[in-house]
Amino acid sequence: MHTITRLSTVELKLITREPFTLLFVFAFPIIVLLVMAGVFGTEAAEEWQGTTPANYYAASYIATVIVALSLVGVPVHLASYRERGILRRLTASSVSAHAVLLSQLVVGFLLALAGSVALILSASLIYDVEAPVSIGGVAVSFTLGALSLVTLGLLLGAVMPTARSAQAVGLGLFFPMWMLSGTGPPREVMTGTMQAISDVLPMTRLVNALQASWFGEGADFGELAILFVLLIVAGALAVARVRAST
């Protein structure tokens, strides 16, 4: 535990010095949320889950913060460690693959939490954003979603040969996922083909789970179960890959 704490402290300092990551975690979701909420007005409608666009996007854009960090920031950071031989040196100094990945998972979770808080505060200052009906449900959905998606980002960073390739693949996955998971146009106005693609995206599972608790439907245990399976499978594969590469 002491090793993970020390590694997490160092990793937090390093990743917060990466302007590209900070841009996608803090600035990008806030700017786009404010624009989207302003464009679509303040009237509640069925396609917005029966609430206002501002409230709809405030709930769903928490997922944007998490996925932006998971696909744009985390993979590049880990892939650069592999590329520069840092993982091998850590292993040579008796730091296990579990400890390396857990420290990055802790840092990813903390950054996702900070970005989400900044997002909600910014939206609340400008628009009439309602508090979630189930704060506990939102907390569980956020926690499981952040852990599973950051772990998926670690897996991507573990398999990509270079930081540049990790960035390219991460961005290539992020933008379609962002547009089709209910954080761009609502799923209700998508075509059948777009909805079919959306159904298989992990970001959609997180958006659905967050909205279910935020708008009062209760915790969506089906979506949470999918996120939990993603966490276990991606975590096991990431550990195996990091061990193999060191």
Write a structural description:
The structure is a single chain. With 246 residues, the chain is mainly alpha-helical. It has one domain. It contains ten helices and no strands. The protein has helices at residues 2-15, 19-40, 53-83, 86-92, 97-126, 135-159, 163-180, 192-199, 202-214, 221-245. The two termini are 21 Å apart. The relative contact order is 0.15.
What's the end-to-end separation, in Å? 21 Å
Report mean pLDDT, rounded to a whole number.
88
Let me know the number of strands.
0
Quick one: overall form? elongated
For the largest beta-sheet, the strand count, sense and barrel status come to:
none
Tell me the series of helices and strands, N- to C-terminal: HHHHHHHHHH
Determine the structural class based on helices, strands and strand pairing.
mainly alpha
Give the tags.
246 residues, mainly alpha
What order do the helices and strands come in, and which of them pair?
Layout: H1 2-15, H2 19-40, H3 53-83, H4 86-92, H5 97-126, H6 135-159, H7 163-180, H8 192-199, H9 202-214, H10 221-245
Helix pairs in contact: 1-5, 2-3, 2-5, 3-5, 3-6, 3-7, 3-9, 5-6, 6-9, 6-10, 9-10
